[in-house]
Amino acid sequence: MSRKFEIMKALIAAWSAGDIDGALSHMSEDIVWHYAAAVAPPLRGKDKARKFLENFKSQISEVQWRLFDYAERGDRLFVEGVDEFLSTQGGRVAAPYAGVIEFRGDLICGWRDYVDIGVMDAQRAGNPRSAWVSAMIDRPAL
Question: Model's pTM, two decimal places?
Answer without folding.
Answer: 0.92
